[in-house]
Write a structure and sequence with these properties.
Blueprint lengths: L4 E5 L5 H11 L3 H9 L6 H11 L10 E6 L2 E10 L13 H12 L5 E8 L8 H15 L4 E7 L3 H9 L3 E7 L11 E8 L6
Parallel strand pairs: 4-5
Antiparallel strand pairs: 1-2, 2-3, 3-4, 5-7, 6-7
Helix pairs in contact: 1-3, 2-3
């Protein structure tokens, strides 16, 4: 890891980068959902950036993100929070079949520190940015007195799954992936979990 790498809380000024990272982390699912809810004259990306910047009630708000930065450049970020039942809503409309398997898996992760999104920009990969973000996410979980951390990964993303397994994440369950416009090919979502040691609180 470069000595210049810094992990810090996100700020409103990071909202544009975080919107891109959220879409990268979800393999295009965020774009699909943004387009479904966008109103005429409002680009989907701008709607999501506005939510990240100012909607404190939304789990995607910048206060739930940690950013990896080197000098003035954002390299990647992670979005995480303690998952509760209030975060689960029944999907409706054209996105329902896509979100249903994800919600089933999230229902198994209630009470854990849930990593909803983590991604690193292509030009920063291979520099231990992802593993650094995961370490800081674990620290955030401990600070919140949570002793289990969870995340989801697609079967079509073996590189990410290999990283998670290398630092102690184990498979809990999986559900069939429902393809959407512009998505990866068929596969399945995998819910992974890691029990944390040395919890504070």
């Amino acid at each position: 890891m470069s000595n210049s790498l810094k992990i810090r809380p996100a700020s409103p000024g990071d909202s544009g980068d975080l919107a891109i990272i959220a879409d990268m982390a979800t393999r295009g699912l965020s774009s699909f959902l943004w387009t479904a809810v966008a109103s005429e004259g409002k680009p989907p990306f701008e709607i999501w950036r506005s939510i990240i910047r100012g909607d404190q009630a939304n789990t995607i708000h910048h206060s739930n993100w940690l950013v990896a930065q080197s000098r003035a450049n954002v390299l990647g970020a992670v979005n995480g929070y303690t998952l509760s039942r209030t975060h689960l809503t029944a999907p409706t409309g054209p996105s329902a079949c896509v979100l249903e398997p994800l919600n089933e898996l999230k229902g198994m992760a209630i009470g854990t520190w849930y990593i909803a999104a983590i991604a690193v920009f292509p030009e920063a990969r291979g520099r231990s940015v992802g593993s650094s973000l995961l370490r800081f996410a674990e620290q955030a979980a401990r600070a919140a007195s949570v002793d289990e951390i969870t995340l989801m990964v697609g079967s079509f993303n073996p590189r990410a799954r290999n990283l998670y397994e290398s630092i102690g994440f184990k498979r809990l369950a999986d559900r069939t992936f429902q393809p959407f416009r512009g998505s990866d090919p068929e596969g399945y979502w995998v819910l992974m979990s890691k029990t944390l040691k040395g919890r504070t609180g």
